Amino acid sequence: MSDEPVVILEIVTPEKMVFSGKVEQVTIQGSEGQFGVLKGHAPLLSAVEIGELNFTRDGKKNYYAVSTGYAEVASDKVTVLAEAAERSDMIDRERARRAKEAAETKLPKMSREDADYERVRAALMRAITRLGVSEKP
Amino acid sequence: MAALRDIKRKVTAVQKTRQITKAMNMVAASKFKFSQARMVNFRPYAGKFMEVLMSLALRVEPDAHPLLAVREPKKLRVISMTSDRGLCGGFNTNLIKATERFMAEKAREGKEIVLIPIGRKGRDYFRKRAKITNEWVDVFGRFDMTLAVEIAEDVIPPFEKEEDDELYIIYNEFRNVAVQRPMIVRILPPPSLNQNAESAPDRGLDYIYEPSADALLEKFLPMYVHNMIYRALVETSAGENGARMAAMDNATKNCDDLINNLTLKYNKVRQAAITAELMDIVGGTEALAKG
Q1: Residue A12 is nearest to which of B45, B203, B206, comparing CB atoms?
Q2: Superfamily of domain B42-245 in the CATH hierarchy
Q3: Looking at residue B2, what is its pLDDT?
Q4: Contact B41 A17 (CB under 8 A)
Q5: What pLDDT does residue A2 have?
Q6: How many CB pairs below 8 A link A and B?
Q7: CA distance A27 to A4
Q8: Residues 6+ apart with CB under 8 A from A101
Q9: Residues of chain A contacting B210 with CB distance shorter than 8 Å
């Protein structure tokens, strides 16, 4: 292992390899809360929730909106497998806003027992995350 | 010259057919490019996913989850995946044959089988020949992971409720543009996890699991089924277009051969007609000269 204080980060979705490269630090939205990974992190396998993922590369922060999946940390390598991941400047704000409005009008009419309740709630979470992340550089 | 005109007409007809097969070849080629890219892009995800699932499965009890349960197989559910449209050589025929052979074999062993056809061709064939519980047709034009999830949500519950004992998927594995091979894969219970439990390399790492390993497995196993089905979908889609490209390329070549042969025949008949006419004229003048 090199002496550089970096970890290798890979973000993979079913559609493509979204990111692959060396980064100084990663912050991930785990199911048990946000966690950061630096070089030398203990091996970890965590579920990833819909939320923001950011990492520092060459001193610059990058922001991504990720959907559910998981993250594996092993020997200074972080692999994030998510059903979707988008870089902040690639997000279609208009589409996210429409999705948010659609989910917001539907959700209050539903009960928690509805089969679709979880799906609509997840759609709302995704839309809110995407809007939030898209405002970052 | 009736024969001459007939041949000419035939040549024109074959030329038109050739135009169509050529166009279909090009359409299939562009679709193929897209579906192949999708297949290639999915591979790293699928590979990584299986890696993690394996390492996770090593650290839990074999019966930790209902989807890992191995039972005496009495009732099987089989997903058989064909394309929606034909004109792609033996692509669907091979798959239907493989499915029939598999079902016949299992039926001889006294097992109960229900079939879930995906793709119009397989559905049309099995409609009256097998017990079908659910079907998906006209899905290959546009599909993504949500389709795989939808199918999985139909096949997972019966296994969980112990109504089914095994779940199989039969699809055409994509080898290359010209070669697709029917594959029979058991999805549930996952074979690779149980078999390789001892042989799989333990990476010697003690993971922190967030949440617990059991809870993660609970989340991963349905995703594993989604991935298996999605993989079959992308391979079928790439294979179908590859097979159609090859079939249409062949058809175009056959048209070329036909056109060549017919043109040759046309020229021969034309030459024979000219010769016959010349003979007539020569014969006529000779008769006149004698007279």
Answers
A1: B45
A2: ATP synthase, F1 complex, gamma subunit (3.40.1380.10)
A3: 61
A4: yes
A5: 56
A6: 64
A7: 19
A8: none
A9: 30-32, 35, 44-47
B143 touches chain A (CB under 8 A): no
pLDDT of B237 > 70? The answer is: yes
Task: Kindly identify which residue of chain A lies nearest to residue B34, measuring between CA atoms.
Answer: A15
Domain B2-23+247-290 has CATH 3.40.50.150: no
Would you say A80 and A28 are in contact if contact means Cβ atoms under 8 Å apart? Answer: yes
Q: How does residue B200 score in pLDDT terms, banded at 50, 70 and 90?
A: very low
Average pLDDT for residues A94-106, to the nearest whole number? Answer: 89
Residue B198 backbone dihedrals phi, psi, to 5 degrees? -90, -35
Question: What ipTM does this complex have?
Answer: 0.76
Asked whether this chain's domains A7-88 and A92-134 adopt the same fold, the reply is no
| pLDDT, average across residues B66-89 | 92
Lowest mean pLDDT among A120-129, B113-122, B169-178: A120-129
What's the confidence (pLDDT) of residue B204? 52
Q: How far apart are CA A108 and CA A93, in angstroms?
A: 23
Q: Report the mean per-residue pLDDT for chain A.
A: 88
Instruction: Name the H helices within B58-179.
Output: 91-108, 120-126, 145-160
Mean pLDDT confidence for B44-72: 82
Q: What is the DSSP code string of B159-197?
A: HHTTS-SEEEEEEEEE-SSS-EEEEEEEEES-HHHHHTT
Q: Would you tell me which residues 48-87 of chain B have a C-beta closer than 8 angstroms to some C-beta of chain A?
A: 48-49, 52, 56
CATH 1.20.5 is right for the domain spanning A92-134: yes
What is the residue whose two structure tokens read 């294979």? B239
Which of A17, A31, A43 is the closest to B208 by Cβ? A43
Q: Return the CATH fold of A7-88.
A: ATP Synthase; domain 1 (2.60.15)
pLDDT band for position A31 (cuts 50, 70, 90): confident
- Over residues A92-105, the mean pLDDT reads 89
State residue B234's pLDDT score. 94
Where along chain B do its domains lie? 2-23+247-290, 42-245
B230 CB within 8 Å of a chain A CB: yes
Nearest to B216 among A14, A45, A75 (CB): A45
Amino acid at B105: E
Q: What is the pLDDT of residue B198?
A: 47
Spans of all domains in chain A: 7-88, 92-134
